């Protein structure tokens, strides 16, 4: 399992198509983390000002249509087919937007 931090609104933008965030177009890959703790660190460092729910996609890399490289962390070189997302966790944040914990999202 690998993890990707995403604002919920971005994930829901085009639910009938594979997920392709702007970072894929700009950088050529979708950055991911190897564990939940790293995902919290990414959220805290890069998404503190994000408005609305912030999620962690739990991605089964064996179900991805795109290639994954570990350089040193996991990076997805292509769009994320939604069938590869095994679940989502919501990032719970404090009043200043700091990531504090993860909760199962249903």
UniProtKB/TrEMBL annotation:
Pfam families: DUF952. InterPro entries: DUF952 (IPR009297). This is DUF952 domain-containing protein. It comes from Streptomyces boncukensis.
């Amino acid at each position: 399992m690998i993890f990707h931090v995403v604002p919920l609104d971005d994930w829901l933008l085009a639910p009938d198509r594979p997920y392709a965030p702007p970072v894929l177009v700009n950088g050529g890959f979708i950055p991911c983390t190897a564990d939940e703790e790293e995902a919290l660190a990414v959220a805290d460092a890069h998404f503190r000002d994000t408005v609305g729910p912030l999620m962690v996609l739990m991605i089964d890399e064996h179900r991805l249509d795109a290639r994954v490289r570990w350089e040193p962390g996991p990076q997805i070189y292509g769009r994320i087919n939604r069938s590869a997302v095994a679940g989502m966790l919501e990032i719970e944040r404090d009043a200043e937007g700091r990531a504090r914990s993860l909760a199962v999202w249903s």
